[in-house]
Amino acid sequence: MSDSCGSCSSAQGGGCSGGGCAESPEELKLKKTLGRIKHKIVVMSGKGGVGKSTVATNIAVALSQAGKRVGLLDVDVHGPSVPRLLSLEGQQPHIGSEVIEPISWSRNLWVMSLGFMLPSKEDAVIWRGPVKMGLIKQFVQDVAWGDLDYLIVDCPPGTGDEPLSTLQTLGQDAHAVVVTTPQGVAVDDVRRSVSFVRQLGNPLVGIVENMSGFACPDCGAVHNIFNSGGGEELAKEMGTKFLGRIPIDPEVARSGDEGFPLVKVDHDSATAQAMNAVIKHMLDLADALQENKEMPKVDEVNSENGRVRIAIPVVQGQLCMHFGHCEQFAMVDVDSELKSIISTHFETPPPHEPGVIPAWCADQKVNLVIAGGMGAKAQSMFTDRGVRVITGAPSLEPEAVVKQYLDGSLVTGANTCDH
Ligand SMILES: Nc1ncnc2c1ncn2[C@@H]1O[C@H](COP(=O)(O)OP(=O)(O)OP(=O)(O)O)[C@@H](O)[C@H]1O
Protein backbone atom coordinates (compact mmCIF):
# COMPACT_ATOMS: atom_id res chain seq x y z
CA MET A 1 0.00 0.00 0.00
CA SER A 2 1.40 3.42 -0.87
CA ASP A 3 1.98 5.93 1.94
CA SER A 4 -0.78 8.13 0.64
CA CYS A 5 -3.28 5.28 1.04
CA GLY A 6 -2.67 4.87 4.76
CA SER A 7 -5.23 7.33 6.00
CA CYS A 8 -8.02 6.74 3.53
CA SER A 9 -11.19 5.07 4.68
CA SER A 10 -11.05 2.48 1.91
CA ALA A 11 -7.64 1.41 3.17
CA GLN A 12 -8.82 1.27 6.78
CA GLY A 13 -11.77 -0.82 5.69
CA GLY A 14 -9.44 -3.19 3.84
CA GLY A 15 -10.81 -2.15 0.46
CA CYS A 16 -7.69 -0.57 -1.01
CA SER A 17 -6.43 -2.31 -4.12
CA GLY A 18 -2.95 -0.79 -3.84
CA GLY A 19 -2.93 0.74 -7.30
CA GLY A 20 -5.19 3.64 -6.17
CA CYS A 21 -8.01 3.63 -3.61
CA ALA A 22 -11.38 2.27 -4.73
CA GLU A 23 -14.23 4.26 -3.15
CA SER A 24 -16.65 2.32 -0.96
CA PRO A 25 -20.37 2.29 -1.92
CA GLU A 26 -21.03 4.67 1.02
CA GLU A 27 -18.41 7.12 -0.18
CA LEU A 28 -19.83 7.00 -3.70
CA LYS A 29 -23.34 7.60 -2.34
CA LEU A 30 -22.13 10.57 -0.29
CA LYS A 31 -20.31 12.02 -3.28
CA LYS A 32 -23.43 11.67 -5.42
CA THR A 33 -25.64 13.35 -2.80
CA LEU A 34 -23.17 16.22 -2.31
CA GLY A 35 -22.77 16.64 -6.08
CA ARG A 36 -26.47 17.60 -6.25
CA ILE A 37 -26.12 20.38 -3.64
CA LYS A 38 -24.79 23.70 -4.93
CA HIS A 39 -24.00 25.47 -1.64
CA LYS A 40 -23.48 23.99 1.79
CA ILE A 41 -23.60 26.43 4.70
CA VAL A 42 -22.79 25.32 8.24
CA VAL A 43 -24.09 27.65 10.96
CA MET A 44 -21.85 27.45 14.01
CA SER A 45 -21.20 29.26 17.26
CA GLY A 46 -18.48 29.08 19.86
CA LYS A 47 -21.02 29.24 22.68
CA GLY A 48 -24.53 27.93 23.30
CA GLY A 49 -27.68 30.04 23.35
CA VAL A 50 -26.46 32.83 21.04
CA GLY A 51 -29.30 32.25 18.56
CA LYS A 52 -27.58 29.90 16.12
CA SER A 53 -30.67 27.75 15.46
CA THR A 54 -32.82 30.88 15.10
CA VAL A 55 -30.39 32.34 12.56
CA ALA A 56 -30.01 29.00 10.68
CA THR A 57 -33.78 28.55 10.45
CA ASN A 58 -34.41 32.11 9.28
CA ILE A 59 -31.65 31.80 6.66
CA ALA A 60 -33.22 28.59 5.33
CA VAL A 61 -36.74 30.05 5.24
CA ALA A 62 -35.62 33.32 3.62
CA LEU A 63 -33.66 31.50 0.92
CA SER A 64 -36.66 29.30 0.18
CA GLN A 65 -38.85 32.43 -0.01
CA ALA A 66 -36.36 33.79 -2.56
CA GLY A 67 -37.27 30.78 -4.74
CA LYS A 68 -34.26 28.60 -3.90
CA ARG A 69 -34.50 24.87 -3.23
CA VAL A 70 -33.30 24.52 0.34
CA GLY A 71 -32.52 21.70 2.79
CA LEU A 72 -32.26 22.42 6.53
CA LEU A 73 -30.36 19.82 8.54
CA ASP A 74 -30.35 20.03 12.33
CA VAL A 75 -27.39 18.04 13.66
CA ASP A 76 -27.63 19.48 17.16
CA VAL A 77 -27.84 16.00 18.69
CA HIS A 78 -28.13 17.34 22.24
CA GLY A 79 -30.76 20.02 21.70
CA PRO A 80 -32.48 19.74 18.31
CA SER A 81 -34.69 22.85 18.15
CA VAL A 82 -35.51 23.14 14.44
CA PRO A 83 -38.73 21.04 14.65
CA ARG A 84 -40.07 23.48 17.28
CA LEU A 85 -38.94 26.57 15.36
CA LEU A 86 -40.83 25.36 12.27
CA SER A 87 -43.92 23.85 13.97
CA LEU A 88 -42.84 20.38 12.87
CA GLU A 89 -42.79 18.69 16.27
CA GLY A 90 -44.17 15.15 16.24
CA GLN A 91 -43.52 14.65 12.52
CA GLN A 92 -41.99 11.30 11.53
CA PRO A 93 -39.88 11.06 8.40
CA HIS A 94 -40.53 8.05 6.21
CA ILE A 95 -37.58 5.66 6.42
CA GLY A 96 -37.25 3.39 3.37
CA SER A 97 -34.77 0.57 2.83
CA GLU A 98 -32.20 2.89 1.22
CA VAL A 99 -33.28 6.46 1.94
CA ILE A 100 -34.90 8.66 4.55
CA GLU A 101 -37.44 11.18 3.24
CA PRO A 102 -36.92 14.66 4.70
CA ILE A 103 -40.00 16.47 6.04
CA SER A 104 -41.35 19.02 3.60
CA TRP A 105 -42.01 22.41 5.27
CA SER A 106 -42.98 24.15 2.05
CA ARG A 107 -42.82 23.50 -1.69
CA ASN A 108 -39.06 24.14 -1.67
CA LEU A 109 -37.82 23.69 1.92
CA TRP A 110 -37.09 20.22 3.32
CA VAL A 111 -36.03 19.53 6.87
CA MET A 112 -34.24 16.72 8.72
CA SER A 113 -33.54 16.73 12.43
CA LEU A 114 -32.63 14.25 15.07
CA GLY A 115 -35.64 15.68 16.90
CA PHE A 116 -37.87 13.71 14.47
CA MET A 117 -36.27 10.45 15.59
CA LEU A 118 -36.61 10.90 19.34
CA PRO A 119 -39.67 9.27 20.94
CA SER A 120 -40.36 12.39 23.01
CA LYS A 121 -38.82 15.83 23.45
CA GLU A 122 -37.84 14.98 27.02
CA ASP A 123 -35.56 12.17 25.76
CA ALA A 124 -31.86 12.91 26.18
CA VAL A 125 -29.29 11.71 23.72
CA ILE A 126 -26.18 10.20 25.25
CA TRP A 127 -23.99 9.12 22.39
CA ARG A 128 -20.26 8.92 22.10
CA GLY A 129 -18.25 10.67 19.35
CA PRO A 130 -18.11 7.86 16.73
CA VAL A 131 -21.90 7.28 16.92
CA LYS A 132 -22.60 11.00 16.49
CA MET A 133 -20.19 11.16 13.57
CA GLY A 134 -21.89 8.19 11.90
CA LEU A 135 -25.27 9.80 12.38
CA ILE A 136 -24.24 13.09 10.80
CA LYS A 137 -22.83 11.26 7.78
CA GLN A 138 -26.04 9.25 7.49
CA PHE A 139 -28.17 12.40 7.66
CA VAL A 140 -26.31 13.79 4.67
CA GLN A 141 -25.82 10.62 2.65
CA ASP A 142 -29.05 8.67 3.29
CA VAL A 143 -31.54 11.53 3.23
CA ALA A 144 -33.23 12.02 -0.14
CA TRP A 145 -32.29 15.71 -0.45
CA GLY A 146 -32.46 15.74 -4.26
CA ASP A 147 -31.20 18.79 -6.15
CA LEU A 148 -30.69 21.67 -3.74
CA ASP A 149 -29.46 25.21 -4.18
CA TYR A 150 -28.55 25.35 -0.48
CA LEU A 151 -28.14 22.94 2.41
CA ILE A 152 -28.13 24.83 5.70
CA VAL A 153 -26.75 22.88 8.65
CA ASP A 154 -27.47 23.86 12.27
CA CYS A 155 -24.50 22.58 14.29
CA PRO A 156 -24.20 22.26 18.07
CA PRO A 157 -22.07 24.97 19.71
CA GLY A 158 -18.31 24.65 20.15
CA THR A 159 -15.56 23.02 18.15
CA GLY A 160 -16.14 19.38 19.09
CA ASP A 161 -17.09 16.18 17.28
CA GLU A 162 -20.23 17.43 15.56
CA PRO A 163 -18.86 20.53 13.78
CA LEU A 164 -15.74 18.55 12.87
CA SER A 165 -17.75 15.66 11.48
CA THR A 166 -20.13 18.03 9.67
CA LEU A 167 -17.38 19.92 7.87
CA GLN A 168 -15.48 16.71 7.06
CA THR A 169 -18.63 15.07 5.68
CA LEU A 170 -19.69 18.07 3.60
CA GLY A 171 -16.20 18.65 2.18
CA GLN A 172 -13.86 21.56 1.67
CA ASP A 173 -16.34 23.71 -0.24
CA ALA A 174 -18.78 23.88 2.71
CA HIS A 175 -18.93 27.46 3.98
CA ALA A 176 -19.24 28.39 7.65
CA VAL A 177 -21.31 31.18 9.19
CA VAL A 178 -20.32 31.94 12.77
CA VAL A 179 -22.94 33.46 15.08
CA THR A 180 -21.94 35.46 18.13
CA THR A 181 -23.39 37.96 20.57
CA PRO A 182 -21.57 41.22 21.35
CA GLN A 183 -20.31 40.08 24.77
CA GLY A 184 -16.59 39.46 25.28
CA VAL A 185 -16.86 35.78 26.25
CA ALA A 186 -18.93 34.87 23.21
CA VAL A 187 -16.51 36.79 21.02
CA ASP A 188 -13.54 34.84 22.43
CA ASP A 189 -15.34 31.57 21.70
CA VAL A 190 -15.99 32.71 18.17
CA ARG A 191 -12.30 33.42 17.66
CA ARG A 192 -11.78 29.70 18.34
CA SER A 193 -14.56 28.75 15.89
CA VAL A 194 -13.00 30.88 13.14
CA SER A 195 -9.57 29.28 13.72
CA PHE A 196 -11.18 25.83 13.75
CA VAL A 197 -12.84 26.41 10.35
CA ARG A 198 -9.60 27.75 8.93
CA GLN A 199 -7.57 24.81 10.23
CA LEU A 200 -9.93 22.49 8.38
CA GLY A 201 -9.37 24.58 5.23
CA ASN A 202 -13.06 25.51 4.79
CA PRO A 203 -14.12 28.99 3.65
CA LEU A 204 -16.11 31.32 5.91
CA VAL A 205 -19.03 33.38 4.70
CA GLY A 206 -18.47 35.54 7.79
CA ILE A 207 -19.67 36.48 11.27
CA VAL A 208 -23.20 37.46 12.41
CA GLU A 209 -23.69 39.45 15.61
CA ASN A 210 -27.03 38.40 17.09
CA MET A 211 -28.79 40.02 20.07
CA SER A 212 -27.03 43.25 19.22
CA GLY A 213 -29.03 46.19 20.59
CA PHE A 214 -32.73 46.08 21.48
CA ALA A 215 -35.56 46.51 18.97
CA CYS A 216 -38.19 48.49 20.85
CA PRO A 217 -41.66 47.00 20.25
CA ASP A 218 -43.25 50.44 20.80
CA CYS A 219 -41.22 52.77 18.59
CA GLY A 220 -39.56 50.20 16.28
CA ALA A 221 -36.10 51.78 16.77
CA VAL A 222 -33.03 49.77 17.79
CA HIS A 223 -31.39 50.94 21.05
CA ASN A 224 -27.85 49.95 21.96
CA ILE A 225 -28.52 49.01 25.57
CA PHE A 226 -25.40 46.87 25.88
CA ASN A 227 -22.11 46.96 24.00
CA SER A 228 -22.31 46.12 20.35
CA GLY A 229 -19.71 45.85 17.64
CA GLY A 230 -17.69 42.94 19.09
CA GLY A 231 -18.53 40.73 16.12
CA GLU A 232 -17.59 43.42 13.64
CA GLU A 233 -14.26 44.08 15.33
CA LEU A 234 -13.53 40.37 15.41
CA ALA A 235 -14.39 40.02 11.71
CA LYS A 236 -11.94 42.82 10.94
CA GLU A 237 -9.25 41.31 13.14
CA MET A 238 -9.66 37.87 11.60
CA GLY A 239 -9.87 39.08 7.99
CA THR A 240 -13.39 37.78 7.39
CA LYS A 241 -16.68 39.43 6.43
CA PHE A 242 -19.05 40.95 8.95
CA LEU A 243 -22.49 39.83 7.81
CA GLY A 244 -24.55 42.12 10.03
CA ARG A 245 -26.21 42.62 13.41
CA ILE A 246 -29.60 41.35 14.48
CA PRO A 247 -31.16 43.10 17.50
CA ILE A 248 -32.79 41.46 20.50
CA ASP A 249 -36.42 41.49 19.53
CA PRO A 250 -39.23 39.92 21.59
CA GLU A 251 -40.88 39.07 18.25
CA VAL A 252 -37.95 36.77 17.36
CA ALA A 253 -38.45 34.75 20.54
CA ARG A 254 -42.25 34.76 20.19
CA SER A 255 -42.27 33.75 16.53
CA GLY A 256 -39.73 31.00 17.34
CA ASP A 257 -41.88 29.69 20.18
CA GLU A 258 -44.94 29.69 17.96
CA GLY A 259 -43.10 27.94 15.14
CA PHE A 260 -43.19 30.73 12.54
CA PRO A 261 -39.74 32.14 11.74
CA LEU A 262 -39.67 35.93 11.76
CA VAL A 263 -38.74 36.28 8.07
CA LYS A 264 -41.93 34.39 7.16
CA VAL A 265 -44.29 36.65 9.09
CA ASP A 266 -42.55 40.03 9.11
CA HIS A 267 -40.85 41.82 6.22
CA ASP A 268 -40.69 45.42 7.38
CA SER A 269 -39.40 45.67 10.95
CA ALA A 270 -35.78 46.67 11.67
CA THR A 271 -35.13 43.07 12.80
CA ALA A 272 -36.57 41.50 9.63
CA GLN A 273 -34.49 43.89 7.54
CA ALA A 274 -31.37 43.05 9.56
CA MET A 275 -31.98 39.34 9.00
CA ASN A 276 -32.51 39.88 5.28
CA ALA A 277 -29.24 41.85 5.08
CA VAL A 278 -27.44 38.81 6.56
CA ILE A 279 -29.20 36.47 4.14
CA LYS A 280 -28.18 38.60 1.16
CA HIS A 281 -24.60 37.36 1.74
CA MET A 282 -25.77 33.75 1.25
CA LEU A 283 -27.49 34.73 -2.00
CA ASP A 284 -24.25 36.43 -3.09
CA LEU A 285 -22.45 33.08 -2.86
CA ALA A 286 -24.23 32.04 -6.05
CA ASP A 287 -22.86 35.13 -7.84
CA ALA A 288 -19.37 34.36 -6.55
CA LEU A 289 -19.62 30.85 -7.98
CA GLN A 290 -20.70 32.35 -11.26
CA GLU A 291 -17.57 34.56 -11.31
CA ASN A 292 -15.59 31.47 -10.47
CA LYS A 293 -16.56 29.96 -13.78
CA GLU A 294 -14.40 32.63 -15.45
CA MET A 295 -11.38 31.52 -13.40
CA PRO A 296 -8.52 30.22 -15.55
CA LYS A 297 -8.10 26.44 -15.15
CA VAL A 298 -4.60 25.32 -14.17
CA ASP A 299 -4.01 23.75 -17.60
CA GLU A 300 -4.91 27.06 -19.29
CA VAL A 301 -2.18 28.92 -17.37
CA ASN A 302 1.37 29.28 -18.80
CA SER A 303 3.68 26.63 -17.37
CA GLU A 304 7.21 25.30 -17.63
CA ASN A 305 6.98 21.63 -18.63
CA GLY A 306 3.64 21.24 -16.84
CA ARG A 307 4.90 22.95 -13.67
CA VAL A 308 2.83 26.02 -12.74
CA ARG A 309 4.10 28.40 -10.07
CA ILE A 310 1.28 30.01 -8.07
CA ALA A 311 2.16 33.03 -5.90
CA ILE A 312 -0.02 33.88 -2.90
CA PRO A 313 0.53 37.03 -0.79
CA VAL A 314 0.61 36.03 2.89
CA VAL A 315 0.55 37.67 6.28
CA GLN A 316 0.90 35.55 9.45
CA GLY A 317 0.80 32.36 7.39
CA GLN A 318 -2.53 33.11 5.64
CA LEU A 319 -3.57 34.73 2.39
CA CYS A 320 -3.35 38.49 2.90
CA MET A 321 -6.50 40.32 1.83
CA HIS A 322 -4.50 43.40 0.80
CA PHE A 323 -2.01 42.40 -1.84
CA GLY A 324 0.29 45.39 -1.33
CA HIS A 325 0.60 44.82 2.45
CA CYS A 326 1.80 41.21 2.52
CA GLU A 327 4.87 40.04 4.44
CA GLN A 328 5.84 37.29 2.04
CA PHE A 329 4.70 35.40 -1.03
CA ALA A 330 4.09 31.66 -0.81
CA MET A 331 5.40 30.14 -4.04
CA VAL A 332 3.39 26.96 -4.56
CA ASP A 333 4.56 24.81 -7.48
CA VAL A 334 1.91 22.50 -8.90
CA ASP A 335 1.78 19.76 -11.50
CA SER A 336 -0.86 21.01 -13.95
CA GLU A 337 -1.61 17.53 -15.27
CA LEU A 338 -1.92 15.71 -11.93
CA LYS A 339 -3.48 18.80 -10.32
CA SER A 340 -1.32 18.32 -7.23
CA ILE A 341 1.13 20.39 -5.22
CA ILE A 342 4.82 19.63 -5.83
CA SER A 343 6.42 22.00 -3.32
CA THR A 344 5.96 25.29 -1.45
CA HIS A 345 8.52 27.89 -0.41
CA PHE A 346 8.30 31.48 0.78
CA GLU A 347 9.96 34.60 -0.68
CA THR A 348 10.09 38.13 0.73
CA PRO A 349 9.14 40.67 -1.95
CA PRO A 350 10.93 44.01 -2.47
CA PRO A 351 9.28 47.09 -0.83
CA HIS A 352 5.87 47.88 -2.30
CA GLU A 353 6.14 50.49 -5.07
CA PRO A 354 3.85 50.71 -8.10
CA GLY A 355 4.86 48.08 -10.67
CA VAL A 356 7.66 46.56 -8.58
CA ILE A 357 5.88 43.40 -7.41
CA PRO A 358 4.48 42.36 -10.83
CA ALA A 359 8.01 42.66 -12.28
CA TRP A 360 9.52 40.78 -9.33
CA CYS A 361 6.90 37.98 -9.61
CA ALA A 362 7.65 37.61 -13.33
CA ASP A 363 11.40 37.31 -12.44
CA GLN A 364 10.44 34.61 -9.91
CA LYS A 365 8.82 32.68 -12.79
CA VAL A 366 5.34 33.04 -11.33
CA ASN A 367 2.54 31.96 -13.71
CA LEU A 368 -0.53 32.72 -11.59
CA VAL A 369 -1.26 34.98 -8.60
CA ILE A 370 -4.17 34.16 -6.30
CA ALA A 371 -4.99 37.17 -4.12
CA GLY A 372 -7.73 38.63 -1.93
CA GLY A 373 -7.77 42.20 -3.21
CA MET A 374 -5.74 43.82 -5.97
CA GLY A 375 -6.09 47.12 -7.83
CA ALA A 376 -6.96 47.09 -11.54
CA LYS A 377 -3.59 48.68 -12.44
CA ALA A 378 -1.57 45.96 -10.71
CA GLN A 379 -3.74 43.30 -12.37
CA SER A 380 -3.02 44.67 -15.82
CA MET A 381 0.73 44.85 -15.03
CA PHE A 382 0.65 41.12 -14.23
CA THR A 383 -1.35 40.33 -17.35
CA ASP A 384 1.14 42.30 -19.47
CA ARG A 385 3.87 39.95 -18.19
CA GLY A 386 1.86 36.79 -18.97
CA VAL A 387 0.95 36.23 -15.30
CA ARG A 388 -2.73 35.34 -14.73
CA VAL A 389 -4.56 36.76 -11.68
CA ILE A 390 -7.45 35.50 -9.53
CA THR A 391 -8.84 37.94 -6.93
CA GLY A 392 -11.36 37.65 -4.11
CA ALA A 393 -9.84 34.44 -2.68
CA PRO A 394 -10.50 33.68 1.02
CA SER A 395 -7.98 34.22 3.81
CA LEU A 396 -6.73 30.64 4.28
CA GLU A 397 -3.33 28.97 4.41
CA PRO A 398 -1.74 29.13 0.95
CA GLU A 399 -1.77 25.37 0.32
CA ALA A 400 -5.47 25.19 1.31
CA VAL A 401 -6.22 27.95 -1.25
CA VAL A 402 -4.28 26.08 -3.95
CA LYS A 403 -5.96 22.75 -3.14
CA GLN A 404 -9.39 24.38 -3.48
CA TYR A 405 -8.29 25.98 -6.76
CA LEU A 406 -7.06 22.64 -8.12
CA ASP A 407 -10.17 20.67 -7.16
CA GLY A 408 -12.50 23.37 -8.49
CA SER A 409 -14.00 24.33 -5.12
CA LEU A 410 -12.35 27.75 -4.71
CA VAL A 411 -15.09 30.32 -4.25
CA THR A 412 -14.06 33.90 -4.81
CA GLY A 413 -15.88 36.89 -3.36
CA ALA A 414 -15.54 40.56 -4.07
CA ASN A 415 -12.11 42.00 -4.93
CA THR A 416 -11.46 43.80 -1.63
CA CYS A 417 -9.23 46.38 -3.32
CA ASP A 418 -10.78 47.41 -6.60
CA HIS A 419 -9.37 50.91 -6.99
N1 LIG B 1 -32.43 38.26 18.10
C1 LIG B 1 -33.12 37.66 19.05
N2 LIG B 1 -34.01 38.35 19.81
C2 LIG B 1 -34.72 37.75 20.81
N3 LIG B 1 -34.59 36.46 21.13
C3 LIG B 1 -33.73 35.72 20.41
C4 LIG B 1 -32.96 36.27 19.35
N4 LIG B 1 -32.18 35.27 18.84
C5 LIG B 1 -32.47 34.15 19.52
N5 LIG B 1 -33.39 34.42 20.48
C6 LIG B 1 -33.96 33.49 21.48
O1 LIG B 1 -32.86 32.99 22.26
C7 LIG B 1 -33.08 31.63 22.58
C8 LIG B 1 -31.88 30.79 22.10
O2 LIG B 1 -31.88 30.82 20.67
P1 LIG B 1 -31.43 29.54 19.82
O3 LIG B 1 -32.09 28.29 20.30
O4 LIG B 1 -31.58 29.93 18.39
O5 LIG B 1 -29.90 29.53 20.22
P2 LIG B 1 -28.76 28.45 19.93
O6 LIG B 1 -27.49 29.20 19.87
O7 LIG B 1 -29.13 27.63 18.75
O8 LIG B 1 -28.86 27.57 21.23
P3 LIG B 1 -28.20 26.13 21.53
O9 LIG B 1 -26.82 26.40 21.95
O10 LIG B 1 -29.07 25.62 22.65
O11 LIG B 1 -28.28 25.30 20.28
C9 LIG B 1 -34.40 31.22 21.95
O12 LIG B 1 -35.41 31.32 22.90
C10 LIG B 1 -34.61 32.27 20.86
O13 LIG B 1 -35.97 32.51 20.57
Automatic annotation (TrEMBL):
Reported function: Binds and transfers iron-sulfur (Fe-S) clusters to target apoproteins. Can hydrolyze ATP.
Entry-linked Gene3D superfamilies: Dinitrogenase iron-molybdenum cofactor biosynthesis domain (3.30.420.130), P-loop containing nucleotide triphosphate hydrolases (3.40.50.300)
An example Gene Ontology molecular-function term: metal ion binding
InterPro entries the UniProt entry points to: Di-Nase_FeMo-co_biosynth (IPR003731), DiNase_FeMo-co_biosyn_sf (IPR036105), Mrp-like_CS (IPR000808), Mrp/NBP35_ATP-bd (IPR019591), MTH1175_dom (IPR033913), P-loop_NTPase (IPR027417), YlxH/NBP35 (IPR033756)
Natural source organism: Pseudodesulfovibrio senegalensis
HAMAP family: Mrp_NBP35
Domain annotation Dinitrogenase iron-molybdenum cofactor biosynthesis: ranges: 317-406
Protein's UniProt name: Iron-sulfur cluster carrier protein
